[in-house]
Specification:
- The protein is an alpha+beta fold.
- The protein is built from 16 helices and 22 strands.
- Strands 1-21-18-14-15 form a 5-stranded mixed β-sheet.
- A hairpin with a 3-residue loop joins strand 16 and strand 17.
- Helix 3 packs antiparallel against helix 4, helix 6 packs across helix 9 and helix 10 packs across helix 11.
- It is globular.
């Protein structure tokens, strides 16, 4: 049976089979609503009518503007799953508020931010460890609100900072294909060694007044925290997270200049890994040479393979190799091209690192750091940073080799059928405990830092993202990687309609098994199902109750009669389409 073409949303699959709603279906809407209500309470307590966070606004790697907006992490995605419009409106007010609040906020001693901590609505110059956190909410606004004028202007401007379209932000060297410093932003790269003050921000009263989230007892310890964070000149894998800005701009505008820049930059990093024994080096010099700013050491630099620092409060050593956040760049390249080559780059690195395992006391241990003496920081678990992403993108069972234990994967394997209910029940307990923390919080705005409120954020979308859309929780500024998304054709908005429950039960390289239920016994429901977070997958057929519907589209329409449900076997070609933020009804005709 021919179901529809991409240009015709009028012919739905009609679900007529009555189905007693399973417990997971009755439960699913509850955590969405509970998280939203909890977020409303948090917003009322910690934000004012302008969207300003009620705290001491500061510059720095500990408690800066990135933490202020990170208080909204998960809010746009929660809306895109189906939460009420209030969650999106609160986020948008908070986003606008933080832009104004931290543009007005200025440093005295830190030269980088004397004219404002944000400039042109973007951090003036900091690293993508922190940029990624600050952009983790904005990057997902397009899921629900892709044509917002301010959003469209910003995606172009932000990407332009890394494509040398702004004369004040020459972050990129197109000849050597590098972002020129670990510190970069709307005022360009920092091309000198960073100081502890650059990282920690202006001196301020700490002891007796503030509870620092990183445990420092005074400002001297805050400075000491960053004393070894000096080597920032040159490119670093962390900067690959900047490619999400180009993905946003491409998906919003369709302009190939953004995808061209992204692929050119990620290809350069892919070659550097190949030239370095399949391991991404952690410093590229301004001359484009591996280790060029760290005396030829491929493992050097801040947040690099050899970045082991002293914790000032205890004197203990901490290993802070953070190249793993650069995996965003390879996922972005896959999203735009569908080329599994980009998955292979990270896969080869996992193999290369773990090939240096050794036996200690009869047990195999694996390295996680590399320095002048070779591999070190051996642990009983393999180096598995990004292993889940690799498996998710490839769907190759061989890539399960390094994935950490996961109840979600066990559920998809059919080995943990109770996981959906268990995960949602745990979410209720998490919400209760976080709101208990809010109730017991006696801080006032002048004794509160921007990161003090982060533990209270109740928008934990991990279990819902896994269960409803078969997706990975976006981290550190990544876009959403998901097998499916839902749209409400009646209210013309992103998210699953009220009283419709969805559970991704199984995923393979070529198919997705979806349980879809209308728990409303009175009214029918309509839902648009999109294959891929951004329509990047092409649905070919949908099988239901032994009948096969031809689709050949990145989305299709389903009509659920009252109290009815079914299992859909959706066959698809993954990464067959250019991703787009445009909602299905705007791609018709």
């Amino acid at each position: 049976m021919k179901l529809k073409t991409e240009n015709d949303l009028s012919l739905p699959i009609i679900v007529k089979s009555p189905l007693k709603p399973p417990f997971w279906a009755l439960l699913e809407r509850k955590p969405i609503n509970a998280q939203t209500q909890a977020c409303q309470r948090i917003f009322r307590k910690y934000f004012d009518e302008r969207g300003y966070l009620l705290c001491l606004p500061r510059w720095g790697g500990n408690d800066g503007s990135d933490d202020a907006i990170e208080n909204f992490a998960g809010w746009p995605l929660l809306h895109a799953l189906g939460a009420s419009d209030s969650i999106l409106e609160m986020y948008k007010l908070g986003w606008e508020g933080h832009l104004l609040q931290y543009t007005e906020a200025k440093t005295v001693e830190v030269e980088l931010a004397r004219d404002g901590m944000l400039y042109k609505e973007f951090p003036v110059s900091l690293d993508w460890f922190h940029h990624g956190e600050s952009m983790s909410v904005f990057n997902l606004q397009g899921l629900s609100d892709p044509h917002n004028e301010a959003f469209m202007n910003r995606v172009r401007r932000y990407a332009g900072f890394y494509m040398n379209e702004d004369p004040q932000a020459k972050n990129y060297d197109p000849e050597h294909k590098i972002i020129k410093s670990l510190f970069n932003g709307s005022r360009g790269p920092l091309l000198r060694k960073a100081t502890a003050l650059d990282w920690a921000g202006d001196p301020f009263e700490v002891e007796g007044r503030f509870d620092t989230a990183h445990g420092e007892r005074n400002f001297a310890e805050m400075l000491a925290h960053f004393e070894e964070y000096t080597d920032v000149v040159g490119d670093h894998p962390l900067n690959l997270a900047a490619t999400t800005l180009a993905v946003n701009a491409f998906m919003a505008t369709g302009d190939p200049k953004y995808s061209d820049w992204l692929i050119d930059y990620v290809d350069a990093w892919s070659q550097r890994a190949a030239d370095n024994g399949d391991i991404l080096p952690s410093n590229i010099g301004l001359d484009g040479i591996i280790g060029g700013e760290t005396d030829g050491k491929w493992y050097g630099g801040c947040y690099g393979w050899n970045f082991t620092v002293t914790v000032p409060q205890t004197g203990e050593k901490a290993h802070r190799n953070s190249i793993s956040r650069g995996i965003a760049g390879f996922g972005n390249a896959l999203l735009l091209t569908g080329n599994q080559f980009y998955v292979d780059v990270w896969r080869k690195m996992l193999e290369a690192v773990n090939s240096n395992a050794k036996l200690t006391d009869g047990k195999t241990v694996y390295p996680h750091m590399y320095g002048e003496g070779g591999w070190y920081a051996y642990r009983s678990t393999p180096y598995n940073e990004g292993a889940l992403d690799i498996y998710y993108w490839s769907m190759d069972q061989a890539d399960r080799k390094y994935t950490p234990p996961s109840d979600w994967l066990k559920f998809l394997d059919g080995d943990k059928p109770g996981f959906p209910v268990e995960a949602m029940e745990n979410e209720f307990e998490s919400i209760r405990l976080k709101l208990l923390g809010v109730a017991n919080d006696r801080s006032s705005p002048d004794t509160r830092l921007s990161d003090n409120t982060l533990p209270f954020n109740t928008a934990n979308t991990t279990c819902l993202t896994q269960l409803m859309i078969g997706g990975l929780t976006p981290r550190y500024g990544e876009p959403l990687h998901a097998r499916l998304r839902y749209f409400d054709p009646v209210d013309r908005r992103a998210g699953i309609p009220n009283d419709v429950a969805a559970l991704v039960e199984k995923m393979t390289d070529v198919s997705t098994t979806l349980l879809l239920v209308n728990i409303d016994p009175v009214d029918g429901k309509k839902v648009i199902i999109q294959t891929g977070a951004y329509g990047e997958h092409q649905a070919t057929t949908v099988e239901m109750d032994g009948e096969v519907f031809a689709v050949d589209s990145p989305f299709f329409n389903v009509q659920l009669n009252p109290g009815c449900g079914t299992k859909l076997l959706i066959r698809h070609d993954r990464y067959a389409n250019q991703p787009t933020l445009t909602h299905p009804w705007d791609r018709v005709g």
